[in-house]
Amino acid sequence: MPSDTTLSILLQATAMLLLPTTMGASMALCLMVAPSGFSIVAIDSYLTRTRAVYGLWILIAAGWIALAIAEEGGSADWLTLCCGGAVLASMAALIWERTVLAKAVAIAAAQVRSVGEGGDVLSINEKGAFIGLQRSPGESPAVRSTGVFWGFAVLTAVVLTLFIAAAVRLGAHQSAERLVQCLLIAAVYFSAGIISVDLSQDVWPGFVSQVALRRSFLWYVLVFEQWRNWIIVAALMAVVAVAPAAYGLNYVSSGFLAFPIWFLACVVVANIHNQILRPMGKVTRRLPLPVMKNEYSAKDPVWALFLTVVHVVMLLGLVAAIVSFNTATIAV
Hints:
The protein is mainly α. Helices cover about 70% and strands about 0% of the residues.
């Protein structure tokens, strides 16, 4: 029977794998049902820009598995071996997604651009804000992604089963405290992964350009308005809502509070800026709200830079939660 330290490591490895598997299934499902031209172009950009993020994510998960094997003295339990197999399967699925599927999406995106207004799925309105074109579902033919969807769907089910197995062995079915800790660490890792993806699409100081602003606009409209991947919202809201309650019950340490505090502070600041200062004429720009439908200027990069700062601090807050979890549960 693996030690609690090994099980905590496996719990985190499987939690990490939930990001690429669920995102892969969600994206493939979107492509299967005759998506909008906007979605196809945005997914093409997403597949191109996130190779490094997902590659690093899988490598870190593999590192957790290696640490679990080392913790067991080189004699791996069946759960450890299964988790290692899930990492390898996730690697294979990502390679499949980023080669075969990405090529099909790139071809479809080129076709969409050829019939778009000005050869694109974006335009700029009279206020200088980006607007999306070809956003109605069914405007473009479905991309053959059935095999990718079912591959990722099965892989997601396997990874989730392994996560539950690790959680049960840790006693999540017997202790409310342990159950909350397991659910929170899954939400934390998923949130950290999606924030890392956000940062790959964000606009960084010194690299502001129309291309960068367009890329960022495509991603945020896709993920929150077109894609509607509710798993992302659920994970983020779970950390925001559950972590403070868990801290109040003394289930987790203060490291889990960094993300909720920063998230709520950003919402408050953006609302004061948009709803009070802007109508008073004190400011002219709108700040974007996290996980909301926003207005994105094509000329003023403040919204994009604001999101970058928000996401950097969010990621640091989630890393603080992960460090806090490991400090409390893994023997050094």
